[in-house]
Design brief:
- The protein is 74% helix and 0% strand.
- The protein is built from 19 helices and no strands.
- It is globular, with a radius of gyration of 24 Å.
């Protein structure tokens, strides 16, 4: 599960069945991908000088990426169901496998995840203007990353027992720690292949080929599901109550090897589109004279942002635990436990889904175009792209926020059942108020990274995290236990607002005006449309609930979501038509084309 925090700082690699948040994700190539270079006229590693051209080109690339993300999420959910079946078949080994399989993600996140995603595209696009088309730069960059990842992976394997004890603690006993260590030896190589996936994907993105990076996790999930199916076929009759000692070395190898094989496939499948584009990697050692110093500076600031974000997450988690234990007041013996970290985590998964599907896809395509414009000195074009991105994100993210605010409760019950699902829904609605700001901040950060500026986006992340942390403490001191996680959702929303305002001010100082009045006018219109659509959706929800006698389970929740959701979308589109929001036509044209 991804951790809540300001966008652009988590950088979590795509795991089977899990949300990546921002990260940043990741088949056929999009229609706007550049053709492979021919002959010797263009060096093989030369990336395209920019991303997709025109609004429709941008939306086409974004649609390809969003489709890959959606398919991966569906398969990831299926993979999670199969995994539960497989692990349950061998008893309490589930905890050991979960601890081990999270370690490579955490290490990769802290060492390289967000850093690589932030710095590679601008550097590769800029190097494309070198006399050799960037061949030497890309060769040295990939070599440096591969060697570094190999070193980190090797050290992690040597330190596997220490890492397991660090993340699992001693509460599980020596037997669980031994089993988790055995799993870790199989899954820690994922660190190397997650990094390889990221660097190869960013080379593709820099060349304007966006689809493969987002579709590769589908291969991961398919491999994982197939391996887990084999495991169930071989060991499905095991006693669910069996102890840890019942898990054999063969079962450990099959489970751990399957998880790693999926990540290996996710990385290596990117070699196919790279070869089609004419990319040939020649290992070259040495970094002097290739301009990696600026990339290192951006990387350090990005890493600092990751640490700040994780520190904020620790504060949020501790307050959520505090709330789940009664927020300082003893709970009656017969009282249900207040919602805590689990509810907060599930709400975050729902909240970040529209961001992952839409914002990450649009910004990934736009990031390459921004980098190309800036490397060629076209600041006017870069400012126009920033305006376009903010307006397109506004149209979609405000609708998503309105839908989650109105339908958070029914969606929570639909997915997680009554009781806990209602808590998830309320918390999701609180988080959704900040969703448009979260997505916009993600774009603005890329505006800085395209200019090789890591310091200013760090300031935005720090302001967002600090604001959320302060409000989190206020929540802990003032709200009753059953409202603590809702208050945490609101704290995150306010933090996103503060972070975006800070980042926009800093970006304007750096680049000059970027069509602010036009962007503001559009957001006023979409906000008005969202209020009207939200009220209409709320009325429809109340009407359906009155007919059904309330939301009594998943069936009634589904009816409310379908009817009220349709009302929200239709009312929103009609309001945008009435207020002449031209960006709606671009979005609808792409929807009709894909339909």
């Amino acid at each position: 599960m991804s951790t809540p925090g300001p966008p652009g700082t988590t950088g979590t690699p795509r795991r089977e069945g899990e949300d990546d948040g921002t990260t940043t994700a990741p088949a056929d190539l999009p229609a706007t991908a550049p053709t492979a270079p021919s002959g010797t006229a263009t060096p093989a590693a030369a990336p395209a000088p920019g991303g997709p051209t025109g609004v429709q080109g941008l939306l086409r690339s974004s649609t390809v990426m969003a489709a890959g993300t959606a398919v991966s999420r569906v398969l990831g959910l299926a993979r999670s169901v199969v995994l539960v079946t497989a692990v349950a078949a061998v008893g309490t080994g589930a905890d050991a496998f979960d601890v081990a399989n999270r370690i490579p993600n955490i290490i990769y996140l802290l060492i390289a995840g967000g850093v690589l995603n932030a710095v590679l595209v601008p550097q590769i696009v800029r190097a494309s203007r070198d006399p050799d088309g960037g061949q030497a730069f890309v060769d040295r960059l990939v070599t440096l990353v591969v060697v570094g990842l190999a070193a980190v992976t090797g050290l992690s394997l040597l330190a596997a027992p220490l890492l397991v004890r660090l993340y699992a603690g001693a509460s599980g006993g020596d037997e669980l720690l031994r089993l988790a260590t055995a799993f870790a030896l199989w899954v820690l190589p994922q660190i190397f292949f997650y990094g390889l996936y990221t660097v190869l994907g960013q080379v593709l993105n820099a060349r304007g080929s966006f689809g493969p990076y987002m579709w590769a996790p589908v291969v991961n999930n398919v491999v994982s599901i197939a391996g887990l199916a084999v495991f169930i076929g071989l060991h499905g009759s095991a006693d669910p109550e069996a102890g840890l000692a019942s898990m054999t070395s063969g079962q450990v190898a099959l489970l751990g090897g399957t998880a790693t094989a999926g990540v290996v496939a996710q990385a290596l499948v990117l070699l196919v589109p790279l070869r089609r584009l004419g990319f040939r990697w020649r290992p070259r050692l040495g970094v002097r004279g290739v301009g990696l110093r600026s990339a290192g500076t951006v990387a350090l600031w990005t890493f600092a942002g990751i640490l700040v974000s994780q520190a904020g997450y620790v504060v949020t988690t501790q307050v959520a635990v505090y709330g789940s234990q009664g927020a300082g007041s003893p709970l009656p013996e017969d009282a249900a436990a207040p919602p805590g970290p689990a509810v907060l985590g599930l709400a975050y998964l729902l909240y970040v889904l529209p961001h992952s599907l839409v914002a990450v896809s649009v910004v990934t395509a736009l990031f390459t175009r921004l980098s190309g414009r800036i490397s060629s000195g076209d600041e006017d074009g870069a400012r126009a792209d920033m305006s376009l991105g903010l307006r397109l994100l506004g149209v979609v993210s405000v609708l998503s926020a309105a839908g989650l605010v109105v339908l958070g409760g029914p969606v929570g019950v639909l997915l997680f059942g009554a009781g806990g699902g209602e808590d998830v829904g309320r918390t999701t609605a609180a988080m959704a108020l900040g969703l448009p700001f979260y997505s916009a901040l993600y774009l603005v950060q890329r505006g800085f990274y395209a200019r090789e500026d890591g310091r200013r986006p760090f300031v935005g992340v720090a302001v967002a995290a600090a604001t959320s942390a302060v409000l989190t403490v206020v929540v802990a001191l003032t709200l009753p236990a059953d409202l603590v996680v809702v208050g945490l959702g609101l704290s995150q929303s306010v933090g996103n607002v503060a972070g975006l305002v800070t980042a926009l001010v800093l970006l304007r100082r750096r680049t000059g005006p970027f069509d602010g009045p036009r962007v503001l006018r559009l957001h006023v219109r979409v906000l008005l449309a969202a209020v009207v659509a939200g009220l209409a959706g709320w009325g429809a929800s109340e009407g359906v609930q009155a007919l059904l006698g309330g939301i009594t389970g998943r069936t009634s929740a589904l009816a409310v979501v379908l009817v009220a959701g349709a009302v929200v979308v239709v009312a929103y589109v009609l309001m945008l038509r009435a207020t002449r929001v031209r960006e709606l036509d671009d979005v609808l044209a792409q929807v009709r084309r894909r339909g």
